[in-house]
Amino acid sequence: MPNTQIEHYRHIDALVYHGINLLDLAGPMQAFWTADSYHPKYKLRILSVDGQPVETQPGIKIAVDGKISDWNPAADLLIPGGRVDKELGSNTLRSLLQKAAARTNGERIISICSGALILADAGILDGKQASTHWSRASTAQTEFPNVNWQLNQLFVNAGNVYSSAGVTAGIDLTLHLIEQDLGAAISLKTAQELVVYLRRNGGQAQFSSALSLQAAGQSNIAKLSEIILSEPEADWTIENMAKSAGVSTRTLHRRLKEDIGATPAQFVERLRLDLARTALLKRSSIKQAAHLSGFGHIQNLRRAFQRNFGITPSEYAERFS
After folding, report:
1. CA distances from residue 279 to 62, 138, 276, 282, 321 in whole angstroms, order as listed
2. What are 154-187's pLDDT values in tens digits?
3. Residue 255: left if φ>0, alpha if ψ -120 to 50, beta else—which one?
4. Distance of alpha carbon 194 from the chain centroid
């Protein structure tokens, strides 16, 4: 029988707006609710700016429990991601988050996915580490350079502020918080009930194809990407890359750094990793994947996987193929 006697409930107020990603809200709230069914701990509410229902990105409308102005100063605040751009610059959100960040009794601020940009806009991530969805990397780094973005982390803890990467990483973070609150046994039971990993190895880079998407914005870089992908085994020195792209080595280095945040060597490695992952998903052997992607030797492939994803090619193949 669960213990129904508990000294302190943890209140969680989710702040929502039109265009939120439904799973950014539903995933963490479901995880907290499931943990609470094993050991009563959480009181959950959903608040919108005006107290009216909001429409999520899938078009599903959700009811709320009140207005943002009704927030509980003793509650954790949960900020989901989604179409956050219209919320940036909101004095209402900025003021509330700044007040929330100043609390000193262990209350938490939790952002899911691109919700971290709302926190950054309020200034409460300045000088702190944070994560957000990989597709928001360019916006995050350009608009909020004072934040120490850790964009390959599934979630990051900076004092009383927690941020997570894309979508389901919000569940990873929530399981971590549940373990802090109620212990490993309840966190494990919650993960089992939701049929998710209790702890996933590696970061969000293993799930994205960010490089090709980011490269598409520059025609020279996109052209170079296609050439390298067609000949991954070639000797891709910076001189050869610059010649293929039709730019100087200095220009190539600058564009890659500015647009993708990578050196020429890292650019080639990531493209080769895209090829290797595709091969592994098609059930190629690790040896075949190393050959097809231009890494040549299995050890080179393993080192690149560990460096970029924090897991081995075997673990990746087992998980996703």
Report:
1. 41, 28, 5, 5, 10
2. 899 999 999 999 778 999 999 999 999 999 889 9
3. alpha
4. 20
